[in-house]
Amino acid sequence: AVRVLTPKSLQGKRVLVTAGPTWEPFDPVRFITNPSSGKMGFALAVEASRRGAHVDLVTGPTNLLDPPFLSTHRVKTALEMDRVVRDLAATADVIVMSAAVSDYRPEETAPQKVKKSDRDLTIRLIRTPDILAGVGAVKRADQVLVGFAAETENLIENATEKLRKKNLDFIVANDLTRPGSGFRCDTNQVKILDRGGQVDTLPCLTKNEVARRILDRVETLLQKVDH
Ligand code: CTP
Ligand code: CA
């Protein structure tokens, strides 16, 4: 009976999470993407909801079902994700961007299936917006902003640069060359880098456990901005 009266640790907070890959089409049946499963972002959204937060989960295409008790927004492209995130970010207390957003998209999308010819095919790719950097540029002091970094080399240097450039409170750095990390796994071995230059190397954990560690840190930061 006591337990139901105890406020949950993220009660009254709005948490925005991005998840999954994006699909960038060049015709109605073909697109550029990456192997992101969405598992890390879904684990974060479910855990934040379990802690009492109001959660908006903005996800690219995944095989995962809409989690109960939170708002799932399904998008396909980086441009769609950017629009939905911009709408929701202003009222969020916490924003965690784990989506593997495509950095480029085909400049043109053919209205019909592209037919093969005997010549080679060239697809010109143009930049998508950096959704996280956009949110970081307008971030308020009372908001907590968390990003991910997916790297295959120079993990600490690259992740530190992203942390600074995108105005993050901390960044979760993923070495994609390590077994048991990153795309499609149920586990993740990450380092968490903060603005003070601290590096926390976590052991290989389930994505659910990584989500708990991330949200524990978020709660610590929220206690600071709330006072
Ligand atoms: N991100 C984003 N929008 C993009 C690209 C990335 O919001 N168009 C976010 C990701 O969700 C992640 C962070 O930025 O939280 C870092 O993504 P990552 O791909 O590691 O870094 P990039 O800044 O895209 O740089 P690069 O891919 O060249 O390493
Ligand atoms: Ca990228």
Q: How is this structure best described in words?
A:
The structure is a single chain. By secondary structure, the chain is an alpha/beta fold. The chain has a single domain, classed as CoaB-like (Rossmann fold, 3-Layer(aba) Sandwich), CATH 3.40.50. The protein is 29% helix and 26% strand. It is built from 6 helices and 14 strands. The protein has helices spanning 2-5, 39-50, 78-89, 131-137, 155-165, 207-226, and strands spanning 14-19, 24-27, 30-32, 54-59, 71-74, 94-97, 104-106, 125-127, 144-151, 170-175, 187-188, 190-194, 199-201, 205-206. It has an 8-stranded mixed beta sheet with strand order 5-4-1-6-9-10-12-13, with helices on both faces. It has a two-stranded antiparallel ribbon with strand order 2-3. Helix 5 (155-165) links the parallel strand 9 and strand 10 (170-175). The longest helix has 20 residues, at 207-226. It is globular. It starts with a helix and ends with a helix. The mean pLDDT is 95. The structure holds cytidine-5'-triphosphate (CTP) and calcium ion (CA). Cytidine-5'-triphosphate is lined by residues 18, 78, 97, 99, 101, 103, 128, 130-132, 147-150, 162.
